[in-house]
Each structure stands twice: as structure tokens, then as C-alpha cells.
Amino acid sequence: MQYGICNLGIVPIRLEASDQSEMVTQALYGDVFKVLEQRKKWSRIRFAYDGYEGWIDNKQYLEIEHEEYSQLANSEIYLSRDLIEYVSDISNSLYPIPLGSDLNGITLLKHHFDGNSITSKSEKTNIIETAFLYLNTPYLWGGKTPFGIDCSGFTQMVYKLNGHKLLRDASEQATQGVPLSFIEESEPGDLAFFDNADGDIIHVGIIMADNHIIHAHGKVRIDRLDHSGIYNADKNTHTHRLRVIKKII
After folding, report:
1. Burial grade of 179 (CB within 10 A; 0-12, 13-18, 19 or more)
2. Considering 111, 164, 203, 217, which one is annotated as catalytic?
3. Would residue 203 show up in a list of annotated catalytic residues for this protein?
4. 6 is annotated as an active-site residue
5. Active-site residue, from 151, 164, 217, 240
6. Domain 2-118 sits in which CATH superfamily?
7. How far is Cα 181 from Cα 190, in angstroms, rounded to an integer?
8. DSSP class of residue 138?
9. Span 124-247: which CATH code?
10. What element of type H or E holds 160?
11. 44: which residues sit within 8 A by CB, 6+ positions away?
């Protein structure tokens, strides 16, 4: 088994081994993973953080040893806190890194970091404040940064920045936590999940106070939440059908 670390700021992870294949998620600086299959130009990987799999360009990561992988995969929280920051290498070349990049591999990569960081878990009351950092971020399928994000990437990163782990996709996140029977039982920071006509979970957002929700739909936005689902006042219609509310923390 081989192992790798993302040594660049934002790297696309593809469904198939091709630049033309859809991006299913992103590797952020410092993410570590197992290499499940290696080809001439591409590697199929599985992230240590959430078990998600996809294909990465071989030019966009560095191989590491099993011991290094294990140490980094089990490290305490150490994340970049600014929307955009830089690390520098031994020749003082700068590498831009986005909010939520994992800094545990700094020494291994022989990089230097002077920015603000997060080194401890936060209370649930901090979830909404963190979510506001992504407000108006454009929707991007597979995205996980303030420059483009999808609905489950948004919830995963907000929770990650507060020291709590979510899986990658909305349908996976819906398997976590404790279900609530009514919106009235929820509190800010809980997750609301929404399904399609086939009953598949396809969307997730973070519940706010006073029957509002913050979620990624076109952009990260705030809408109304009721027992039917998400009500978009701009369109004067419901855009998503509520399936279940989960208390994760």
C-alpha cells in the first residue's frame, strides 16, 4: 500500500482517471490518503479524513511513508483559519492555501506557516459564525473552499473547522447523528437533509435560529425553513423538500 499527501492548495479529485472527468471533491493542502491504484498519470485514492475515493493527478501530490501517514491521519486539529493564506518552502516560494487546510504536515513538507490557525474544538454555538465565512461563495460541484463549494462540502468544512467530523456526501452525512422529530426540537448548528422524488437524500444545510437555514444553492445563502422544506423568498417558492433533521453534536 502506498500513501500520499496533498502539497498544493486546492487539487481536483475526479470520478475517473481523466482531466475531462467530473470533479467529485477536492484535496486541500495537507490532506493525506491511501493510494489504492496507481497508473502512469493518475492514482485512485481514499482520504484518511472521510474515506472518500477518487482519482488524483500524479503530479499533484507527494508520496509519504506509512508511518508518516498514520501519524498525520491521527493528529490533533491544526487548520488554517484565514480565507486564503500562504506557506513557503525552503527557497521562499509561496504556496496559497485556503481556509481549512491541514497544517499537520508542515514539517514533513518542509514548509513554513505564519498565518492564523485553529488548534482546538469549538462549541456548537460557533457553527453558525463559521458558516458565515462562506456566505455568498458560489456553488461548485465537488468544491470545498470559499472560492466554490457544494452543499455537503459546505457542511463538512464548517464542522471540520470546529473540530467535528462529517462524511463527504449529503447522503452519507444523513447516516450520522440523532434524528429529530420536529423543527422545533432543533437548535442552530443542527443539519437538515432534503430528498428528491425518488426519496434519495440530495441536499443538506445548517439550521439557524428563527426558522432559517444556511446552505449552498447557487451560492451559500440564507433561506427560510419550514415543515415542507426550504422556502426561497426571492423565487417565492419551496426549492427543497425536507426529509430529516439530525443533531450531530
Report:
1. exposed
2. 203
3. yes
4. no
5. 151
6. SH3 Domains (2.30.30.40)
7. 13
8. B
9. 3.90.1720.10
10. helix 151-160
11. 17, 35, 36, 37, 38, 53, 54, 55
Give me the amino acid identity at 25: T
- Reading the chain (249 residues) residue by residue, the pLDDT tens digits are 899 999 999 999 999 999 999 999 999 999 999 999 999 999 999 999 999 999 999 999 999 999 999 999 999 999 999 999 999 999 999 999 999 999 999 999 999 999 999 999 999 999 999 999 999 999 999 999 999 999 999 999 999 999 999 999 999 999 999 999 889 999 999 999 999 999 999 999 999 999 999 999 999 999 999 999 999 988 899 999 999 999 999
* pLDDT at res. 233: 86
Distances (CA, A) of 39 to 35, 55, 192, 206: 11, 10, 40, 39
Single-letter residue type at 19: D
List the catalytic residue out of 6, 111, 164, 215.
215
pLDDT for the residue numbered 136: 98
10 grid coordinates: 486546492
Query: Domain-by-domain residue ranges, the chain?
Result: 2-118, 124-247
Tell me phi and psi for residue 5, to 5 degrees.
-135, 140
C-alpha cell recorded at residue 215: 446552505
- The residue among 155, 186, 145, 197 whose CA lies nearest residue 11 is 145
Name the one residue in this structure whose C-alpha cell is 425553513. Answer: 225
For residue 192, give the H/E element and its range.
strand 191-195
Please count the CA atoms within 13 angstroms of the CA of 19 that sit on its side-chain side: 5
